[in-house]
Amino acid sequence: MNIESRKYYASLSALLFFFFFTWSSTFSVVAIWLRKYVGLEGTDTGVIFSCISIIALCAQPLYGFLQDKLGLRKNLLLFIAVLLISSGPFFMLFGPLLQWNVVIGSLAGGLFIGMTFHAGIGVLESYTERVSRLRDFEYGKARMWGSLGWAIATFFAGRNINVDPNYNFIMATVSGVIFLVILLRLKTDKTNAFNSLEHGKPSGITIGDALQLFALPRFWALILFVLGTCIYSVYDQQFMVYFAHQFQDEKMGNEMYGYLNSLQVFLEAGGMFLAPYIVNRIGAKNGLLFASSVMAIRIIGSALVEGPIMISAMKLLHAVELPILLIAIFKYNSRHFDKRLSSTLYLVGFSCITSIVASILSPLAGWGYDKIGFADTYLIMGCFVVITTILSAFCLRGDKMDPVEHNTSLAEIKGKTAT
Q1: 202-252: pLDDT as tens digits
Q2: What is the mean pLDDT of residues 142-169?
Q3: Which phi and psi angles does 6 have, rounded to 5°?
Q4: Which residues lie closer than 8 Å to 393 by C-beta, 6 or more apart?
Q5: What is the SS3 assignment for 225-256?
Q6: 3-class DSSP state for residue 286?
Q7: What's the CA gap between 28 and 22, in Å, rounded?
Q8: DSSP label at 194?
Q9: In this predicted model, which residue has the larger pLDDT, 387 or 242?
Q10: What are the φ/ψ torsions at residue 115 (nearest 5 degrees)?
Q11: Domain range spanning residue 166?
């Protein structure tokens, strides 16, 4: 890695670190905050998560298309930086708003959180992945710093929630300011930035180009896979409540969850460092199937085991699953789809579908937690992941492809579909 590449690696790693630090400061213990300080039940919390997912669902395709049009320009990231800085004051007002009116509060929370974090992270991750290919460094090694940011913030958030939740929100705003400073210092002076596209000029990508993805069978095969794997976001939403209930002292449970989540994400960061080597060795498709299988074991295992130690062991499997999933999804997309649409593919083919499923399942999961319990709800989720994993083994494409097909451009695809 040359000096120029190191500069980009360091800057983007720092951006990922402080994005996730901000996100974790406000969101890592949000279910506990909503239940303990705002006074909401599991079903109401599920409605809030559903609203977040619906807004993210609307924002993600727009964000993806805009970032592909912008190429390496930072306009959209600057907008997200402003939202990150505003996250602390927003959450301080979010609680009273929910107590006044759950519906209005849920809509407001869904709008802000969905646009800032759940859609915003896809922009930053796809931007980093694009630069990593241009500057010749592994995306996973940069993404590792995002995991570290989440882990460090969660370590403090689990303790602060027992003292004053506003401490977490203040941390978030300070972190957002640092994110903005780093972003302003990041220079994207690479000419001929993507394929033959000149940096700073329109990329030539149109809405029609993006919509053309829906005509490709391999895109729908990817969607099938994501339908199962995105269950992990629903599983994680209120897991902190389930874990805290394993302890007689709720405050101890909250604090121990902070430590558990920090340990998980520290291990996840190590996984991000190793995942590129693993995926390069076993292939992108096998990486996706492996990650999905571990996810199924984790969710079903959470339903079958008892006690904080064994439940913690199941949760820590996330540190194995997520790094391989993220690395494999980017490598699979770059191998089987037009690279110019990397942001659109990630934000529509992965993030957007995740939001669709989460918006539907979050209130159902919240109802399940209240009515049949966490364990039985997790068992149903895990069985769904098993089914989609088996189907995906037949539908996803292998890494070896016909060179002619691999090099097919959007124009050629259009010509085939037109005839």
Answers
A1: 445 556 666 676 677 778 888 888 888 777 777 876 787 788 778 777 778
A2: 83
A3: -60, -40
A4: 289
A5: HHHHHCHHHHHHHCHHHHHHCCCCCHHHHHHH
A6: helix
A7: 10
A8: B
A9: 387
A10: -75, -35
A11: 3-418
Instruction: Return mean pLDDT, the chain.
Output: 78
Whether 198 has a pLDDT exceeding 50, the answer reads no
Long-range contacts of 128-132 (CB under 8 A, 24+ apart): 128/12, 128/15, 128/16, 129/330, 129/342, 129/346, 130/72, 130/194, 130/342, 130/343, 131/8, 131/12, 131/72, 131/188, 132/9, 132/12
Exposure b/e, 191-223, CB count within 10 A at least 16 = b: eebbeebebeeebebeeebbebbeeeebbebbb
The CATH number of residue 413's host domain is 1.20.1250.20
This prediction has a pTM of 0.69
Instruction: Report the number of distinct structural domains present in the chain.
Output: 1
H helices, E strands: number in the chain: 21, 0
Q: Which amino acid is at 121?
A: I
The token duo for 386 is: 């098993």
User: DSSP of 22-51, one letter per residue?
Assistant: HHHHHHTTHHHHIIIII---HHHHHHHHHH
Q: Which string of DSSP letters, residue by residue, matches 123-148?
A: HHHHHHHHHHHHHT--HHHHHHHHHH
Is the torsion defined by CA of 25, 144, 387, 337 positive or negative?
positive
Structure tokens at 348: 């529509």
Q: Does residue 402 carry a pLDDT above 80? A: no
Q: Is the per-residue pLDDT at 100 higher than 70? A: yes
Q: Which amino acid belongs to residue 94? A: F
Max CA pair span of the chain: 67
